[in-house]
Amino acid sequence: MNPPADCAETSALKKKPDMYGERIIKEKAEKHYEAGVDAMSQSHFNKAVSCFSKAILLQSHQTEFYVQRAEAYLQLCDFQSAALDYKHACGLEPQTEAYPQRLAFVYYLQGQCCFDLGKFLEALESFTKAAELKPSFRPYHMRSLACLTALGRYSDCLQLVNNWLKMDGQSADLFTLRARLHHQLSQMTLCYHDLRSALRLKPCCPEAQALLKRMKDVAKDSHQAAVNKALKGELSDALGKINTALEYNPNKAQYYLFRGILYRRLKDFTAAIEDLVLSVEFGGAGEDPPHGDMRDRSLDLEEDAQTQLVLTYNDFAIQCFSRGLYGEGIMLLNKAIEKDRNASELFINRGDCFFKQCEWTFALADYEQAEEMDPDNTAIWLRLAIIHNTLGLHCYKDKKYQDAADKFSAAIRYNPGVGQYYENRTKAYSKVAKMEEAKMDAIRVLILEPTNDQVVPLLLSLLPGCSLTDIMSCATAQSVKTQLMAKIQAFKLAVSKVSSTGRMALVKEEGQSQKLQAEDGSEQLMKPCITSGEVQCELVKRKQQLNQAVKRALQQRPPLRYDGPRLAPVPPAHEEPGAQERPYVWRKFGGFGLNC
Predict the structure, then answer these.
(1) Which positions carry the signal peptide feature in this UniProt record (predicted)?
(2) Mean pLDDT over all residues of the chain?
(3) 162, 300, 396, 570: which one has the fewest Cβ atoms less than 10 Å from its Cβ?
(4) pLDDT at 175 (0 to 100)
(5) What is 153-250's CATH number, 2.50.20, 1.10.10, 1.25.40, 1.20.120?
(6) CATH assignment of 257-373+502-550, given 1.25.40.10, 3.40.50.2300, 1.10.10.10, 3.40.640.10?
C-alpha cells in the first residue's frame, strides 16, 4: 500500500535541509583545507595550522587534514603535535604503511633535537618509539645506542648489540662495537676476543687493529712490571701485574708460563698446573702462526713450560708428602715422570713416598732406577742403605738369616759409617754360623760406637777367655779399624763433592735468560721429599728408639730372685666314701744308676 502523496512530500522537505547543511560544512572544510595548503606553499605555517585545525573541526574524519597539519607542525618543530596528528592518521587508515613510517621519522627528529640539547633520556624515549615503528631500520637503533652510551648504561648497550648479533648474524663492525663496550665496562678479556673475531672477519679493520694494539701495549707494560716485582721478591704484587697483562692479552703463552711459575713459588700448585698447561696449548696455537725464529722461540717456550710443569708436580707432591698424603704424592710424581723420565730426583721422591707407605719393593725399584740414572748421587746411596737395612730386618724376622745378611751387606756398601748395619749383620752371621765374619762386624760396631753394650756379650762369647780390651787392642782389630776408616773417609769425600755441585733452573723470558730468585739466591731443579740431613736424622732417631726399647726391656725385666711358691696348689681329689688317707712317701735318690 503506497503512502499518501502528502506524506512523501513532507519527508522530502525534512531531508533536504540536512543534506544541504552537510554540503555546506564540506565546502567550508575544503575551503579551509585549500587555504591551509596555500599557506604551506607560502611558508606561513602558523596560518596553515589554523586553517587545517578549522577544517578538522568541521570534518574530523578526514585523514588528509591531520596529515597536512602534522606537516605544518613539523615545519614549526612542534614534534609532539605532529606525532599526535600522525597517530590520528594511523588510527583512521591503519592499512596505510606510509603514516607509521612518517611518524617514526617524526620521533627520530624529536629524539635528535633532545640529544643535541643534552636531554638523553627524552631522546632515548623518542628513538625507542621510532625503532619500534620501524624495527628493520638500523639508524634508529644506533641512535638509541648513542643515548644509552651518553647515559653510561653500557650494560643495556651490550644487551642491545648482543641481540643484533643474534638476529643479523656476525659482522666485523658489530664485534668492534661490542669490543668497545666491553672496554668501557673494563671487561678486557671479552674485549680482546671480540677484536680478534672482528679481525678474522675483516683483517684490515682499522678500528679493531688500533684498539687491539693499545691493549697489547698495556699487557706488555704490565708483564714487565710483574718481572721487576718478581725479581725483587714481591711475588704477590707480581701476580697482580701479570693478571692485568693476561686480562689485556689472554692468548699470550709467555704470560701464562710466568704466572704459573709465580703460583708455584706461592705454593698454589693447582692454579700453577692450569696456567702451565695453558702455556703449552697457547705456545703451539697462539695468536699468530709461528715462522722462522718465532717457531724456534715457541719450541723453547713449550720446553720451558714442560719443565716448569714437572717442577710443579714435584713440589705439589712434596707438599702432599709433608702432610702425610703419600698416595696423592705418588700420583703427582707419576704425572711428572710421564713428562720427564730422565730426572732421577722424581724417582727418588716417589721412592720416598713408597717407603712411607711401607711398599719396600716399589721403593727399592725407584731408588735403583735413580741410581742407574745418577750413580754418583750420595742421596740415593743413603736411601738404598736404609731400604736394604729395612728389608734385611724383615728377612731376619722371617728367619731368612742368609738373605738378611746379604741385605745388611748391601746397606753397608752404600753407607759404611752406620754401626747399626754392622750390628744387624753380626746377629745374622751368628745365626748362619759365620763366626769369623760375626767377630769382625762386632769389632766394627765397637769402633763406630764404643759405648754400644749390646754387642759386647756376643763378641765375648765369640772369643771366650779374652777381655774386651785385649780384643780391641789386637792387630786384627787395628787392621779392621784402618780399613773401616778408609771406607768412611771415601764416602764422606764423595758426599762433599756432590753437595758442592749446585743445579740451577732458569726461566727464559722473551729470548733472555731470566730467573725468579729464591730467598737463598738459587732455585733447585728438583726438590727432594727427604734431604740427606733428614735421612741421617731418621737413622739416628731409629737408633735411639731401638736403644730405648732395649733399655726398657732390661730395666723392666722381672727379678731373678723369687720367694713365692714354685708350684700352684693342687686341689684335693674327690675320694670315694670310706676310702682311707694314705701318707705321702718321699722318693729316695741314691745316685746315678740307682733305683728309687
Answers:
(1) none
(2) 81
(3) 570
(4) 93
(5) 1.25.40
(6) 1.25.40.10
